[in-house]
TrEMBL record:
Residues 5-61 form the HTH lacI-type domain. Keywords: DNA-binding, Transcription, Transcription regulation. The keyword Transcription applies. This is LacI family DNA-binding transcriptional regulator. One of its GO terms (molecular function) is DNA binding. Pfam families: LacI, Peripla_BP_3.
């Protein structure tokens, strides 16, 4: 579907102008629009990325009840569409399977039905938070965090191979020095700092190639503003030594970095190429469009539901770790 047509579809569905949709998807904070409208625009945009369900399975004799625990707040979820996309994929699979799904944000476990059959937890959680959820049900599935060592089903992305693919692409096109903008954050109880696995993979791979340069690495917090600030810092500190390519570990940060480059009259991709990660909706709505590692968020969410069904239907107690692969989506922010 063409981007212009998609924008029109979003505008029509939400009941706002085409310009409003475009500005919201580009994180234009100067636009006066309500949070509810902003949320609706992002949700409709993500919905349009999913294939409509063609088949429905038979309704089970007992309707399963699943609680979705999202570690982000409703507002923060809009700042990083990755987790919202996973949730939407999960909810679609539940709808397909006639499973009753309820959601709670920021680990509000008090809101969970005590008779729930399983919990699917999206995001990052400390040991204490995992223990609290296990008191409600032994049937836990984690999406985007490997909890296999604690005995729980987990669905994760293959970060290491994806980062290697990006660096191989850059090397093939003559970019030997590559900068990195990455994020870090804490679980909502402040007990666990979550270091970006893409940073770990990037450093390991670049050190193996003998090209790792810590002066080209900048840490933020995954937000659009953080990407903008860190790129401004990189431009100021590195000057003419600014590398010809950057890998940025999520789309909001990449969009912010792109804005900083524009403001400093640094051409993308002629002077600096950008490669992002997650390939959420915003990657296609900035200019130039962002090359990004595509993560099949719909599949991540759907797989979590499948694991719940398998565990409940078969009585399986052995935990499973499912790793979902990625693919590179090349767009205008990179040369090649």
């Amino acid at each position: 579907m063409a981007i212009a047509a998609t924008l029109k579809d979003i505008a029509k569905s939400v009941g706002v102008s085409l310009a409003t949709v475009s500005r919201v998807l580009n994180y234009d904070r100067t636009l006066s629009v309500s949070e509810s409208t902003r949320k609706q625009i992002f949700e409709v945009a993500e919905e349009l990325n999913y294939t409509k369900l063609k088949h429905r399975t038979a309704t089970p004799s007992k309707q399963l009840k699943i609680a979705i625990v999202q570690w982000y707040s409703k507002t923060k979820e809009l700042d990083d569409l990755y987790y919202m996309s996973i949730r939407l994929g999960l909810e679609k699979r539940c709808e397909e399977r006639r499973i009753l799904a309820t959601r709670t944000f920021q680990n509000d476990l008090q809101a969970i039905d005590p008779d729930v059959d399983a919990i699917i937890a999206i995001g990052k959680f400390s040991d204490a938070q995992v223990e609290a959820m296990s008191q409600l049900t032994p049937n836990l599935v984690f999406v985007d965090q490997d909890q296999l060592c604690h005995g729980y089903d987990s669905v994760v992305t293959d970060f290491r191979f994806a980062v290697t693919q990006v660096l191989d692409f850059y090397a093939k096109h003559g970019h030997q020095e590559v900068g990195l903008l990455y994020g870090s954050e804490w679980t909502t109880d402040g007990q666990l700092e979550v270091v970006d696995p893409r940073y770990k993979a990037f450093r390991r791979e670049m050190e193996a190639r003998g090209t790792y340069n810590p002066k080209l690495v900048f840490g933020g917090d995954y937000t659009n503003h953080s990407g903008y600030q860190e790129m401004q810092t990189a431009i100021a500190q590195l000057g003419d030594d600014l590398p010809s390519a950057f890998f940025i570990t999520n789309d909001p940060m990449a969009a912010g970095a792109l804005k900083a480059l524009h403001e400093n009259n640094i051409d993308v991709p002629q002077r600096v190429s950008l490669f992002s990660f997650n390939d959420t909706t915003i990657a296609k709505y900035v200019f130039p469009e962002l090359s990004s590692v595509h993560v099949n968020t719909e599949l991540l969410g759907a797989t979590a539901v499948d694991l719940v069904e398998n565990r409940l239907q078969t009585g399986r107690t052995t935990p499973q770790l499912v790793t979902v692969g990625t693919e590179l989506k090349l767009r205008e922010s990179t040369k090649g």
